[in-house]
Write a structure and sequence with these properties.
Oligomer: single chain
Number of domains: 3
InterPro entries: DNA_circ_N
Strand content: 15-25%
Pfam families: DNA_circ_N
Structural class: alpha+beta
Number of strands: 12
Largest sheet: 8 strands, antiparallel
Organism: Crenobacter caeni
Number of helices: 13
Protein name: DNA circulation N-terminal domain-containing protein
Helix content: 40-55%
Length: 419
């Protein structure tokens, strides 16, 4: 192995640093006391000096300006962060002001002088914002508004004359194509026909039982790291149910059974959203263990997916009364549904804000991803311990990189989670 292959890829707060040279200092802090008529000072040892780490970084190529802006944004972001040093590995540092310089002779290249200093532990605890209660309060508010809207909408569109068989034929095809929903309906209700009959008779009770449908799909995912995988899949389920409901309600010549099917699919979307908010609020916003912890990149993906789904749902709620299937109802009916629809839309926006804040707090204490290439074939337990001193991260490494056998990790670039 040559000396260059032993260098780690440099980064700060996850942003890569393309460096040309690096330097640092080490030693002791000394106070030199000089006295009259004494040729030698008295030197007082004040402890180890703060270690600075200096890089000459470069932004070049076609995207040099974007690289420069991104690097400066990371340097100017508040708080300390993780520096991956090419020689010394991971450490927590703070960034000192950076200097950049550009010359016309350099031809599209900017040199940036970066300096970091070690960050010590806080002497006093810092209070963390409590985010779980905000998610649960927003969820409860959304559930109340949605139940009122769906109960009244179901009463208007069914009009007591719609039979469950007609609605079941319209709903069954949509439900079968959504991952994990059909099996949950059979376990909780006994089948799609029984679900339709129960929701028609009591929408509020139907939503409560639909929550159990999505809770069953969650049971196969155990632990915090698996919960993020379920959250990503649940965001996809919400999008699928939403698109099917919108397609059914988007037909102007829709029958009464079709309107009921559209509202029923909308009810299932609400239940999927409630279940996702419940589960994701259980992710702790502080580190509680070493082995079973989510990865920051996974949390960020779930947060973006859930917020996008909730924003789309909020937009749908504000336009619910304008959909062709609902807009074709009598004006008095539409007028009665409008305030409930508006309140539900605002609740979706509040839940998106609260859930986004909670997942951002979870992301800040989650594991990070690093790309490594093992020098030899090793067992996953040994490699995880060698790289990060924590063999409990081996299972996550095997799963993320689709390693065929945990005793034989191949020599290839691997994404590895670390603290």
């Amino acid at each position: 192995m040559d000396w260059k292959s032993r260098l780690r890829d440099a980064s700060f707060k996850g942003h890569p640093i393309k460096w040309l040279s690096q330097e640092g200092q080490a030693g002791r802090r000394l106070a030199e006391h000089e006295f009259p008529q004494r040729d030698r000072p008295w030197v007082e040892d004040m402890g180890r000096m703060v270690r600075p780490f200096t890089f000459t970084a470069v932004c070049s190529g076609d995207g040099w300006l974007e690289e420069l802006n991104q690097l400066l944004a990371v340097i100017e972001s508040p708080g300390s962060g993780e520096l991956v040093h090419p020689l010394f590995g991971r450490m927590t540092v703070s960034a000192r002001p950076a200097r950049w310089a550009m010359s016309l002779d350099a031809g599209g290249r900017v040199d940036v002088q970066l300096e970091f200093v070690e960050t010590g532990d806080l002497l006093f605890p810092v209070p963390l914002k409590e985010t779980v209660s905000q998610v649960r309060a927003a969820r409860a508010e959304l559930l109340g508004h949605s139940q009122s809207l769906l109960e009244k909408a179901m009463g208007f569109v069914s009009d007591g004359r719609v039979k469950a068989d007609a609605v079941m034929g319209l709903v069954d095809g949509h439900v079968r194509s959504v991952v994990g929903v059909a099996d949950g309906i059979r376990s909780v209700f006994g089948g799609v026909q029984q679900m339709v009959a129960e929701v028609l008779s009591s929408p509020v009770t139907g939503i409560a039982k639909l929550l159990r449908v999505f809770e069953l799909s969650r049971q196969q995912f155990q632990g915090q790291s698996d919960l993020t995988k379920w959250g990503a899949r649940q965001a996809q389920v919400i999008r699928q149910l939403r698109s099917r409901s919108s397609a059914v309600l988007g037909r102007s010549n829709q029958s009464s059974a079709g309107r009921v099917a559209g509202v029923l699919l909308k009810t299932m979307t609400v239940a999927a959203t409630m279940s996702a908010a419940d589960a994701l609020s259980e992710l702790p916003a502080r580190r509680v263990g070493r082995g079973d912890a989510p990865v920051a990149e996974d949390i960020r993906a779930v947060r973006n997916a859930m917020q996008a789904a909730l924003w789309d749902m909020a937009s749908d709620e504000t336009r619910f009364c304008a959909t062709p299937a609902i807009g074709a109802l009598p004006l008095s009916t539409v007028s009665a549904l409008q305030p409930l629809s508006h309140a539900a839309g605002q609740s979706y926006l509040e839940l998106a804000r609260a859930l986004g804040a909670h997942l951002a707090a979870v992301e800040s204490v989650s594991l990070r991803l690093e790309t490594i290439t093992p020098a030899t074939v090793l067992p996953a337990l040994v490699l995880a311990y060698q790289e990060h001193g924590n063999a409990m991260l081996a299972d996550e490494m095997v799963s993320r990189n689709a390693i065929r056998h945990p005793l034989f990790v191949p020599i290839q670039p691997l994404q590895v989670a670390h603290e």
